[in-house]
Amino acid sequence: MNNRLLVRHEVSDYAKWKSYFDAHGNVRKNHGIKALQVLQDTSNQNDVSIIFEVADIAKAKAFVKSNELKEHLKNAGVIGKTEMNFFSDK
């Protein structure tokens, strides 16, 4: 079974956001979350979607609700609401 997390949000500046995203890779890895693909909307490059592979759904759900991640997203320039949805290919 493959678990995935789909995240979508708007950022104020893609280049700034991407540098924060890349620097945060080891933190995600420690929570069993691996980035598979980063996508930009074709009409708004600051509208970003990310597909992650998730090793442990419970651990990943705890991480996405954490204050640590909320602070990181704020510092990275995420604006508005972040959509986070978990999927599985059972």
3D architecture notes:
The chain is built from 4 helices and 4 strands, in the order βααββααβ. It is an alpha+beta fold and 90 residues long. Strands 2-3-1-4 form a 4-stranded antiparallel β-sheet. The longest helix is centred in the first third of the chain and has 10 residues, at 14-23. The model has no long low-confidence stretch (mean pLDDT 96).
Architecture (CATH level 2) name: 2-Layer Sandwich
Q: What's the structural domain tally?
A: 1
| Distance between the ends | 6 Å
Widest β-sheet, arrangement of strands? 2-3-1-4
Give the rounded overall mean pLDDT: 96
The profile of the biggest β sheet is: 4 strands, antiparallel
Q: Kindly provide the radius of gyration, computed on alpha-carbon positions and rounded to a whole number of angstroms.
A: 13 Å
Strand segment tally: 4
**CATH topology (fold) name:** Alpha-Beta Plaits
Main CATH class: Alpha Beta
Helix segment tally: 4
The 3D shape can be described as globular
The ordered string of helix (H) and strand (E) elements is: EHHEEHHE
Low-pLDDT parts are none
Question: Helices and strands: which structural class?
Answer: alpha+beta
**Which percent band covers the strand fraction?**
35-45%
Provide the helix percentage: 25-40%
